[in-house]
Amino acid sequence: MSQAQANAALHPDLADNPILARWIAVQADGSVTVNAGKVELGQGIGIVQLQVAAEELDIPLARMRLCAGHTAHGPDQGYTSGSLSTQVGVIALRQACAEVRARFVAQAALALGVRPDEIEVHAGVLSNPASAAQRTYWDLREAVDLNVRASGLASPKRAHERTVTGKSARRPDLESKFGAAAFIHDLALTDMVHGRVVRPPAYDARLEAFDDAARQCVREMPGVCALLVSGDFIGVCAEREEQAIAAAAQIRSLTRWTGARTLPPPGDTQAWLGDMPAQVSVVSQTGGGIAAPNDALSIGSTGRSLHAQYSRPFLSHASIGPSCALARWDDHRLTVWTQGQGSFPLRRELSLVLDIPVDDITVIHADGAGCYGHNGADDAGVDAAMLARAAARPVRVQWTREDEFAWSPHGPAMLVRIAASLDDSGTIESWREDVWSHTHVQRPGMAQGICSLAGAHRDPPAPPIPLSDFPLARGGGGTRNAVPIYRLPRSQVDYHLISQPVLRTSALRALGAFANVFAIESCMDELAILAQRDPVDFRLAHLDDPRARHVLQEAATASGWVQPKAAASRADAVRGRGVGFARYKGNGAYCAVIVEIEVTDRIALDRIWAVVDAGELLNPDGVANQIEGGILQAASWTLKESLGWNESGITAQTWDDYPILRFDETPQSLRVHCVPAPDEPPLGVGECAAGPTAAAIGNALADALGVRVRDLPLTPERLAAVALETPPDTNRRP
Q: Is residue 730 part of a domain?
């Protein structure tokens, strides 16, 4: 292999971060530090990173240490998002470790006077069996220079050679999380003060009055040590947290705001999205495409055709722990501790907002409440940096529950309209799909310009961010999973990117895939009923991908799909069974979910089966945990969650206003089966279950009652309203 070919063979993440010392450090104390750009968010990626490094280096797992999301040491791997921590991040780490091992093997061979192929590595010892001579990684650490570029010439182990990955291993972060202070909220810096930010009462409100007398009143409050007013940004610091809270409350009582715009009325469903101005693009087209039907608003089925409209509301991240960040200035240098998902993108945002060189900023990830998307964590980091500079002391900024609901970015509301038809044999012959959504991309480092709240509120304010969204080639934003996996001879999928913002929106777990898969898989069930076919058989008849077929068949077998449903537990209850299936992003994990529910005055989850093909399973227990967590979060979205808002802004303030799934509402049984595929590349799994779960619950509800609810969430109130309008028994599966 030529050097040019070797360079081309480098994983893109390694090619972007080619210096090996940014990935691995052999320490004098007999440990090895793995520096990673992908961070722990509750998904369990940390143990997988350690397993892969231990595997490739042939060093005991107990000797491995993890440093993730530290801009002074690790590689810039962008955001931990899109179920790419393993599929992209860990595979780059695997190749980097293979390069490191090769360099140590070469040095050991030189030290022992043998060829590199005569060196064996086991448990950190590099030896020549013929002479019994040996060295360790730690003997050679001074002689091996890792401050060099990866060559692309070293190959990772083959599947049959791996003994550490492919097995479940205990997560090293859990012990401290269960029994001690392990989160960013628990961090305390020397001489630290506490900060609070007072936001405007609405998105476009402007500060009209906060005069010198009012400001002096705040400065004289107990413990207050700094007050920062810049444009519409107001922040206060105090010695104790309760003093900062009291000062923020006083500021609210002394300020006057004006100029808040009026938001459009939300309505009971998201049909209003179809009337919003939008940028329209063709996402996919087969067989010449299909024009939008003139009667796109006519919902229902006639003979062998179906017009249907599906939607989801705005969703909050609803993390149990609100966002938190800490910042400290040392002369002109800034250090920020963040629970955000991208330390390097946040560093770039801080550089823009504060107008200082990026090299003067260090961002360090610290574990926080998981959010799987863009919540207030990055904003809190910018808040802390601005207040720390104003106070000339380290600052801890803690957002409140009200801050999170009112000001963190939300998952966009979405609308999907599908017009499909069957031929005489009951096979889909045409499929027209239109998707409406606000942008899913407002993260620092991804959008053009400054994205943080502080950047927009300070003086001078940052200009508005140009409208954009992920193209399908990058996994899609609103278009994620908009293109069905099924065989469709004539189809067209159009995307309507809404150009008029309503609420602040950005990335939420699975992005557009949740709504798109819910819509597609609900429509597939409705078409199966029109064709008088079993829903699983109908899907199989339109699936060509053998891995997809296998996953769906395995799920049907595991759940006893062809067997009668269990009897209802109560006389006034009915049971339903539904299926949902997708391949995440069209290139990620395959996931089939089958749900059995019981319906009384509410929808109760009884049993759930999930079958997943995620390629090579680096940590099987971690994969199962991710699928279980994804199913439960999707069930909460599907059954309960909807962000309340009116013409003035967000109305949700507490968990009473934004209910989430409770422990007593989780399914009686949740079984996950992972299809073994050790020779296939590993695929991300964290988000693959979201859409199939929503569709399976919706299809189970239709099976139980013969009533199709196409707008999420599937609340008892919405179910009752639809039941009054819908003839019964038209949505039961044959």
A: no
Q: Token match 């089958």: residue?
A: 594
Q: Which of 155, 177, 199 is the last residue of a domain?
A: 177
551 and 687 within one domain: yes
What confidence tens digit (pLDDT) does each residue in 367-414 have?
998 889 999 999 999 999 999 999 999 999 999 999 999 999 999 999
Residue 322: asked if its preceding bond is cis (omega within 30°), the reply is no
User: Residue 317 corresponds to which tokens in the numbers above?
Assistant: 């991240």
Give the DSSP per-residue string, 9-28: TS-HHHHHS-BGGGTEEE-T
pTM of the complete model beyond 0.90: yes
User: Do both 50 and 19 map to the same domain?
Assistant: yes
238 phi, psi to nearest 5 deg: -145, 160
Angle CA(623)–CA(314)–CA(408) in degrees, nearest 5? 80
pLDDT tens for residues 599-627?
998 899 999 999 999 999 999 999 999 99
pLDDT for res 297: 47
pLDDT-flagged residues of the chain (< 50): 296-297
Torsion sign over Cα 226, 230, 231, 235: negative
> How many other C-beta atoms can be found within 10 angstroms of the C-beta atom of residue 16?
14
Q: Which domain holds residue 275?
A: 271-315+412-440+476-725
Widest CA span in the chain: 85
Q: How far apart are alpha carbons 114 and 131 in whole angstroms? A: 10
Residue 584 lies in a domain: yes
Residue 464 lies in a domain: no
Tokens of 69: 């999301």
Residues 6+ apart with CB under 8 A from 307: 293, 295, 296, 298, 299, 300, 301, 417, 418, 419
